[in-house]
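User: Please fill in residues for this 220-position structure.
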């Protein structure tokens, strides 16, 4: 506990989190890139180190602050060998939670990147790996995946995660949601599915595709 701030962090980032004290003063140097009733996202263009702070504003009765939830989820995901945006730690203060991560200027959202066959296949392998490792992100979509200059993918946003190996039905549900996503051409969606399901029988592929399309209709 420092100046009323509860710090949750590992040894190597303890110093780093202390640099952020007091949090309100630090936020003065920031630029707000997102604001809603529940959260704000800040970056710090004027300071040398590139940080990003996600502030979760809502007090939740008998429940952990979302920033803490995200941090704990991110640690579990990291342990499973998935590339994620690098979180440094959490500060809990005055009922709010501040999630601090390195802000990588070389990363853009996958949803804003130029898709190519290679990138779509990488995305399919990434998605498959995540699901096979029992990470079920409810809002898995290309806005929550970052891509760097070398086309390496990173998962971000860990508010709604369930650690459970999803059934084929749930997998189809995720794929149907992705399929609803308008930023990607149908041609690439097919490449994605082929890579995702790998070498399966043509009939079985058709069964799965029908299942996805049926789910997709429900969403529209
Ligand atoms: N470490 C990072 N480096 C660079 N950009 C990042 C990093 N972490 C997150 N972002 C960017 O910030 C955006 C918002 O982060 P996040 O998804 O965690 O919050 P969100 O509240 O779900 O916002 P949104 O609804 O816009 O997705 C991400 O989509 C991504 O573009
Ligand atoms: Mg998000």
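Assistant: Residues filled in for all 220 positions:
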């Amino acid at each position: 506990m420092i100046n009323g701030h509860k710090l949750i962090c590992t040894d190597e980032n303890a110093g780093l989190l202390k640099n952020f004290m007091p949090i309100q003063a630090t936020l003065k140097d920031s630029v707000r890139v997102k604001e809603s009733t529940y959260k704000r996202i800040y970056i710090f263009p004027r300071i040398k180190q590139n940080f990003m702070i996600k502030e979760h504003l809502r007090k939740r009765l008998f429940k952990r602050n979302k920033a803490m939830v995200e941090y704990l989820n991110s640690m579990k995901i990291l342990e499973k060998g998935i590339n994620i945006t690098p979180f440094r730690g959490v500060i809990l203060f005055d009922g709010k939670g501040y999630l601090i991560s390195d802000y990588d200027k070389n990363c853009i959202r996958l949803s804003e990147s130029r898709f190519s066959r290679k990138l779509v296949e990488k995305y399919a392998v990434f998605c498959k790996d995540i699901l096979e490792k029992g990470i079920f992100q409810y809002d898995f979509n290309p806005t929550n995946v970052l891509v760097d200059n070398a086309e390496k993918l990173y998962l971000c946003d860990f508010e709604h995660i369930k650690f459970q190996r999803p059934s084929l039905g749930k997998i189809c549900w995720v794929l149907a949601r992705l399929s609803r996503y308008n930023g990607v051409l149908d041609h690439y969606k097919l490449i994605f599915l082929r890579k995702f399901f790998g070498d399966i029988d043509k009939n079985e592929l058709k069964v799965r595709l029908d299942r996805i399309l049926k789910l997709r209709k429900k969403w529209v």
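For context: The radius of gyration is 19 Å.
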